[in-house]
Amino acid sequence: MRGVSSQEAVRHPSKSVRIRKEMAVSPQALRAQSVAGQSFVDSVNPATGEVVARIPATPLTAIPAIFEAARAAQKTWAAQPLSARCTMLRSLRDAIFERRDDIAKIVTRETGKPRAEAILAEVLLALDTANFLARQAPRWLRPERVPHHNIALKAKSGWLEFEPHGVVAIISPWNFPFAIPMTELIPALVAGNAVLLKPSELTPATGALVGELIDRAGFPKGLVQILQGGGELGAAIIEAGPAKVFFTGSVTTGRRIAEACASKLIPSVLELGGKDAMIVLADADLDVASSAAVWGGFTNCGQACLSVERIYVEQPVAEKFVQLCVEKTKKLRTGSPKDTESDIGPMIRERQLEKVEQQLRDAEQRGARILTGGNRRPDLGANFIEPAVVTNVDHSMQLMREETFGPVLAIRSVASADEAVALANDSPFGLSASIWTSDARCGRALASRIRAGSVMINDVASYYGISEAPHGGPGWSGWGRTHSRLGLLEMVQVKYVDVDRLPRFAKPWWYGYSEDFAAAAGSMVEALFAPSWKRRLQAMVGRRGARGLIARRRRI
Ligand code: NAD
Over the chain, what is the mean pLDDT? Predict the structure, then answer.
């Protein structure tokens, strides 16, 4: 990555972006600027609005050569023993560990998230995924015996074999710019694929760093290529025909990608938005639950697919719970992510703030009460907003129906757990949810009634850091799974291989049909599935019995 020395910054004509003086080549272009034929994707610090690095953009014309290099590298890579691929994962893990401070620094500078969050939710997750899959992949990707239950097919033995797709595309968002691509790239590689990674155009420096780590770990040239650019580049990658697409991002883009993939019959995994519900029952530990709500709603400035966005709390404890949430929210420190004491940094861009403000306005107009927060903090820098707690909300409000993706906790009091479940399920999203209760059995019973890819009882969001836990949900939250064994299996084609143990025998079901043969076939169905044992035994014997299946076939 090309860094930029600290220089006086000048305000760009756009209100929230400043470009350092020595780089301000064109006042019109914000992201991809052309300097001597080379376009760039700018890395902007959301806390200051300054362009802090300029990463060369990938020209669309380079895509055919990129695919060609990836296909060549993939063939050699897939031919390596799995143990060698696992060794490379360990090298990647070590490279990540070595550069952990740089990773946290660049992610913090480019996303505005506090350093602690960059370490825990980005670096740690990537390290654990590499470690976990280096250990587990040999077990999960080795051929798996398939025992046959049907007595008529016992003379055959079968296996599942797990083969790479080929060149897969990973298109990722800006909110977890290191952890999300890494937790997809690592399983893709260990399964034997080549990867074309297109990071978000808002986090190109983190994307470039992924490329450096891949080089440092020693992966073959061309196996992982980082393609820098915006949506048009993502669309062009799909147009060029990767073997599978792993997309994480918004519902709107997800729809476009699903359509593009469908028209070319390219399989896809879509990890889209969320509107996660938190259900707080009257017997919950309110102190812990309110701390969870505040962290779950505001971590990463609320810009997480697993953010707590809707809270349904049983009426007898609602007032106390709301009071605790407000008190704790007021104690949070919003400020520069450079300051390690800050709990909450800026949002990524101005348009994200506008969306939050629009949802708050709509909610207020429909009768909601903002108990704290919701105001911009220009005194802190660009894109800062105070975390908000809102009550008196209902499902007519955008705040309860659309993904907010900002630091807002919307709390509604409910008469019962049944009402809470009904409201939690009243959403097109279904990524995850949480239930708070001191009765674990009751929690599990409610969890089974919630439409979501995951439900946590007495915790929020942290399952995302459990490498064994699958991630993904139904409806507008997308399809397919990442993380865990299920995520690894998304990276492979499953092939069934069958070996016949009686290779010298022609199969009884081959040609040479006759009336007796058809009758014997019917008897065999009876012998296997008739409701009584007596009928099954009868079907075995006799001139046209199942046993005659072999004898009755004319030899061809
Ligand atoms: P986005 O949809 O705007 O962009 C995501 C990526 O898609 C970017 O790399 C972008 O350049 C690319 N893209 C845009 N148009 C494209 C096209 N036509 N073809 C191919 N690629 C295209 O999303 P975002 O703003 O970066 O991320 C925020 C969204 O991501 C939120 O909705 C959030 O909930 C979701 N998200 C989901 C998960 C999850 O695991 N379910 C995780 C993180 C974020």
Answer: 92
